[in-house]
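Schema walk-through. Below, the input block comes first and the output block second. Nothing else is stored per chain. Lengths vary across the set, and this one has 182 residues.
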Amino acid sequence: MSTPLMACPEGWVASPNASFSASCYYLSRPNSGEFTTSARGCTELCAERAAATTLGSSVPVCYTSAEEMGWIQEAWGAQYMCSACSAVRTGMYKDPSTDPDDLDGWNKCVDGGEPHVLFSSDACAGFNAEGTCPENRHGAQYCMGVRGSGASIGSCDKFGMDPVPCLCAGPATPTAAFAADL
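--- output ---
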């Protein structure tokens, strides 16, 4: 097992790799009142959880590599990311100026970073069997989650029928562009 890169606050998990998007990660727990239906709510929850710690700030995670996404799915996948389970809300979202029925424009992160997985009409050519490309079946689905079967998209205000857990990463802060976009 690798040595953590920094000491994380209680309840947070240290990143095992300096190339990951954050030093510490936090996943809201069931029955904690920390599930949310919206991207804004998740961003607020992440900020609140980090503000009370030495991290100071955090945002919903935006994966920067396949390795980071794999580590997160391994760390929490059995509890939260099975193919039939609820998605976990992330910090990746679609440029709201793009066509909602088009896969192009999935290149935004709450913290201003660039996501590892860039979806495009050319790359996905529809929804594939592994579920790695989002399928916009209901229109106006601009926010990303992840489950065991891959990408899961939903409205930024409501993610399916139920509130979902937030996966926070910090230290990090939301950009002004995120507030303006959504």
